[in-house]
């Protein structure tokens, strides 16, 4: 699928301080998500945390002849990390309704409230159940934030910069991971309450999102969708920084006219012509998780300890991989609207495959059940992990959120994106819940397991993922799906009276 079909459409816009502030403040929803991903792995590696909540794990960890691959294998410890994502999975469907009925801005505000509650509960936890409830509150916040923020960013971004703006979400995810890794590195020496500081500091980005959500404008598409046409046009002028917005306003309005005829968006998603974006939105989320990235990011400190690094060194290694993650996400901001989505996805598949295979070979050959890697091989593994993280950071990380947020028509956008978010949360939950058990059972061969998935996803992208660079978000159906060699045959069905009412 070519990338230039929509490049001739350029609606007028200019950058203003206000619109850039809106992008950054909304993206703090991503920072909250990233902070949580990064904080949980470091906290579960802290002895003070383990002695209070998981003493049996600590006992295994300190055992003289511990098994490198099994010392952290504990279902309840994994539930500490994964419970958040189960809560987010369920919450994303409620968030979809909130996005449609109340708007994107209100949904982001609600996410901040859940984040604040989760941070307070986790930091003050005295019992395991308090810890899990705090994680569930975080999870509801993630479900609401991850539903609303990428859709908000895609809808307020000018078409020629949509990729860059949407990737701010993933950039802030990576910044959150890096901040969390650095905080864990520092608080691991604060005995016995370092883990409380790590979990409690989540309140800072939650407060930024709380106050920031009051400053945000609602998106024009959301206002028009709810019949607030005058406010919608005013909001469009405000975020574009120009008064001449008639052409873009009319395009959004046409999309809203179609959307208003769809009373049951989830039912509409099951129709034949909705399958291409639904399949791609879901599969990209599944593939994103089966790259193995969250296995590495959740458990980077644990993983590096498994490879023979001492506790401080493993936390420092997690800071290094977090830094690579941030820097290389910036590469994506530059490249996504210049080279397109497909090139980044395919290049990353090749690079991730080589990295995972090489890590697997080194560990199979050199890391036995007991003992450690020699220092040279350990450094090589860290370099390979960084190579893997870098390729993910400029491709599957940000594009996993960008592509699903831009491929659904307005009438199914929040419902379709809810499926994408919930799929992401489901498979994040599964990976978080079973990774340590998989590591214990499969040992180093787990890296070959993820490598096989990377091969499959490369084939999927090559044949089935279209290019959306430069195409206005409300013209994707006409200019992408109806032109794609595989998916165009799904676009000809009469969908119950909406045939002929197209988005320009």
Question: What would you say this structure looks like, in words?
Answer:
By secondary structure, this protein is an all-alpha fold. It has a single domain (17-490), classed as MFS general substrate transporter like domains (Growth Hormone, Chain: A), CATH 1.20.1250. 74% of the residues lie in helices and 0% in strands. The protein contains 23 helices and no strands. It has helices at residues 17-44, 47-53, 55-62, 75-101, 104-123, 128-156, 162-187, 194-200, 203-215, 220-225, 229-240, 246-260, 265-269, 275-290, 293-298, 300-306, 311-339, 341-366, 375-393, 396-407, 413-442, 446-464, 476-479. Helix 4 (75-101) runs antiparallel to helix 5, helix 5 runs antiparallel to helix 9 and helix 7 packs antiparallel against helix 8. It starts with 16 loop residues before the first helix and ends in a 25-residue tail after the last helix. The relative contact order is 0.16.
Q: What structural category arises from helix and sheet content? A: mainly alpha
**CATH structural fold name:** Growth Hormone, Chain: A
Report the mean per-residue pLDDT as an integer.
85
| Global outline | globular
**Cα radius of gyration in angstroms:** 23 Å
- Major sheet: none
Tally of separate helices: 23
In what range is the share of β-strand residues? under 5%
- CATH architecture field: Up-down Bundle
């Amino acid at each position: 699928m070519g990338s230039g079909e929509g490049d001739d459409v350029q609606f007028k816009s200019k950058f203003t301080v206000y619109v850039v502030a809106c992008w950054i403040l909304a993206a703090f929803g991503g920072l909250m998500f990233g902070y949580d991903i990064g904080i949980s792995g470091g906290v579960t590696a802290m002895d003070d945390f383990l002695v209070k909540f998981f003493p049996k794990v600590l006992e295994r960890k300190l055992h003289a002849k511990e098994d490198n691959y099994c010392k952290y294998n504990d279902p309840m410890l994994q539930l500490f990390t994964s419970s958040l994502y189960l809560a987010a999975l369920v919450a994303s469907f409620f968030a979809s309704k909130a996005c449609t009925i109340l708007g994107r801005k209100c949904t982001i505000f609600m996410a901040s409230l859940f984040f604040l509650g989760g941070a307070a509960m986790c930091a003050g936890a005295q019992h395991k159940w308090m810890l899990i409830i705090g994680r569930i509150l975080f999870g509801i916040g993630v479900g609401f934030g991850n539903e609303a923020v990428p859709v908000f960013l895609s809808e307020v971004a000018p078409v020629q910069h949509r990729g860059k703006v949407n990737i701010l979400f993933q950039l802030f995810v990576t910044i959150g991971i890096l901040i969390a890794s650095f905080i864990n590195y520092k608080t691991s020496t604060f005995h016995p309450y370092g883990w409380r500081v790590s979990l409690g500091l989540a309140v800072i980005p939650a407060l930024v999102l709380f106050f920031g959500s009051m400053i945000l404008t609602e998106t024009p598409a959301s206002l028009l969708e709810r019949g607030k046409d005058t406010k919608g046009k005013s909001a469009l002028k405000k975020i574009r920084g120009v008064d001449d917005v008639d052409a873009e306003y009319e395009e959004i309005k046409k999309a809203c006219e179609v959307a208003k005829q769809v009373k049951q968006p989830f039912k509409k998603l099951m129709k034949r012509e909705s399958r291409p974006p639904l399949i791609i939105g879901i599969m990209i989320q599944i593939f994103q998780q089966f790259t193995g990235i969250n296995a590495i990011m959740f458990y980077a400190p644990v993983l590096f300890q498994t490879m023979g690094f001492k506790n401080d060194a493993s936390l420092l290694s997690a800071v290094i991989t977090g830094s690579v993650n941030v820097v290389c996400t910036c590469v994506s901001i530059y490249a996504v609207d210049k080279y397109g989505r497909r090139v980044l996805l395919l290049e990353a598949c090749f690079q991730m495959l080589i990295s995972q295979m090489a890590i697997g070979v080194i560990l199979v050959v050199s890391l036995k059940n007991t003992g450690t890697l020699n220092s040279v091989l350990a450094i090589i593994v860290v370099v390979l992990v960084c190579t893997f993280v870098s390729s993910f950071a400029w491709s599957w990380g940000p594009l996993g959120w960008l592509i699903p947020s831009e491929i659904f028509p307005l009438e199914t956008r929040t419902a379709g994106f809810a499926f994408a978010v919930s799929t992401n949360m489901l498979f994040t939950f599964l990976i978080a819940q079973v990774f340590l058990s998989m590591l214990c059972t499969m040992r180093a061969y787990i890296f070959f397991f993820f490598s096989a998935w990377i091969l499959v996803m490369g084939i999927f992208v090559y044949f089935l993922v279209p290019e959306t660079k430069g195409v206005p978000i409300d013209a994707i159906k006409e200019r992408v799906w109806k032109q794609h060699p595989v998916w165009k045959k799904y676009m000809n069905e009469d969908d119950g009276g909406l045939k002929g009412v197209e988005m320009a």
